[in-house]
Design goal:
With 380 residues, the chain is α/β, with parallel strands linked by helices. The protein has a single domain, classed as Glycosidases (TIM Barrel). 35% of the residues lie in helices and 15% in strands. It has helices at residues 5-12, 48-58, 69-72, 100-111, 142-155, 160-164, 195-212, 227-237, 255-271, 303-319, 321-324, 365-377; strands at 33-37, 62-68, 90-92, 95-97, 115-121, 175-178, 217-223, 245-248, 279-284, 326-331, 335-336, 351-352, 362-363. It has an eight-stranded parallel beta barrel, surrounded by four helices. The two termini are 37 Å apart. The relative contact order is 0.13. Residues 1-23 form the signal peptide. Keywords: Signal.
């Protein structure tokens, strides 16, 4: 090249640089990589904004959060609210409602550009069939339906949160999961089979959600244990046509059984004419609680084993994603205490609380495994 040509090209900014490597194609649609946001993550002492920023950089795209109805609406009327607590509540459709905790989580997720799917459960004592039983189903359907409308009025496309927080890029909640694992007593304590009562609640919830936000997705509860049998019972009870997404919690010690559980649920859906409705795995985990707790669920492992199982599970689920119609796989959970609990699920996190006295979260091996899978899914 003549001596004068190179300076000229530099001056013109047209020096040819090495071609950038083309981006790898995505292996699944946006939203496939999800996690649960609960437990210590939303408690005092943890920097929630920092954690959701880490989620984003790691490759998390979807968050499942818990909204406990009894926490937001513990009182039936404003007159019932103790005087010293009234400043924490605002009246919505006649019910005093405290949004502060949920506002914090939804706002943090929006700031990180993460989509949110709340699971809405646990009736307040004033609307339980059995006021003394926290796991009791609601006494009726109207109050739960009204609460869903209240949530959409706060976090949906026209939500008051976005109007009150102009500093946030609005990221409305458009998916709502109706209850959690109603086929087990821990979440739906009832002397009769759950199907008819849950189907009635789902129908009411579907009407309320579609009225408040016609573009929203109604997600049926995830079922645990023999979930395919619970799915069949729900169909016999009349859930068909009242949800847009199904959900499954395919817990098992063996990956082969995780896949089998999902296939069995899909077969039930096909037999009932819903073969094309997507499935969300709204909880999947292997707790790193081996040798840590006396209460076991049968699939505890070590921290290293948790990472190995996570990696193998996501790789396998990606291969069957289209066949089984999987939309999202939510790891349970992002941050766990990993100490001082009889419950082995308290060791489920990708990250854990640090030493007592600091609580600064630290990574577990599963964190690195998840991030590597997520980045590959996203073509990064």
């Amino acid at each position: 090249m003549p001596r004068l040509v190179l300076p000229l090209l530099l001056a013109l900014g047209v020096l040819i640089a090495p071609a950038a490597a083309p981006a790898a194609p995505r292996l699944a649609p946006e939203g496939f990589m999800g996690t649960m946001a609960d437990g210590p993550l939303i408690e005092e002492g943890v920097d929630l904004n920092r954690e959701v920023g880490l989620m984003r950089s790691c490759g998390v795209e979807s968050l499942r959060i818990v909204i406990y109805w009894e926490d937001l609406q513990p009182f039936a009327t404003t007159a019932d609210v103790p005087e010293d607590r009234r400043a924490s509540f605002r009246e919505v459709e006649g019910i005093p409602t405290a949004f502060a905790v949920t506002d914090r989580v939804v706002a943090a997720a929006a700031g990180a550009g993460l989509r949110v799917m709340p699971v809405v459960l646990r009736a307040p004592a004033w609307d339980r069939e059995d006021p003394k039983n926290q796991a009791s189903p609601p006494r009726g359907d109207a109050a739960y339906a009204r609460f869903l409308r209240t949530l959409i009025g706060r976090y949906g496309p026209q939500g008051s949160l976005w109007a009150e927080r102009p500093d946030l890029q609005a990221r409305p909640v458009r998916s709502w999961q109706v209850w959690n694992e109603p086929n087990i007593d821990r979440y739906w304590s009832s002397p009769t089979p759950f199907g008819k009562r849950y189907a009635r609640l789902l129908r009411a919830a579907n009407r309320a959600i579609n009225t408040a936000d016609p573009g929203a997705e109604v997600v049926m509860s995830g079922f645990a244990n023999d979930s395919w049998r619970a799915m069949a019972a729900a169909y016999r009870a009349g859930v068909r046509g009242h949800f847009d997404r199904a959900a499954v919690h395919p817990f098992s010690g063996r990956l082969a059984n995780v896949l089998k559980i999902l296939r069995l649920n899909r077969e039930v859906m096909r037999r009932n004419g819903d073969g094309k409705i997507p499935i969300i795995v709204s909880e999947l985990t292997w707790p790193s609680a081996k040798g840590k707790t006396k209460n076991t669920v049968g699939f505890e492992t070590t921290a290293a084993g948790q990472a190995t199982r996570l990696r193998a599970a996501y790789q396998a689920l990606l291969k069957v994603r289209r066949t089984l119609g999987l939309q999202t796989v939510m790891w349970y959970t992002w941050l766990s205490p990993d100490r001082d609990s009889p419950n082995s699920f308290s060791w489920s996190g990708l990250r854990r609380l640090g030493p007592l006295g600091t609580d600064a979260p630290v990574n577990k091996p599963a964190y690195g495994a998840y991030c590597a899978i997520a980045r590959r899914v996203q073509g990064r």
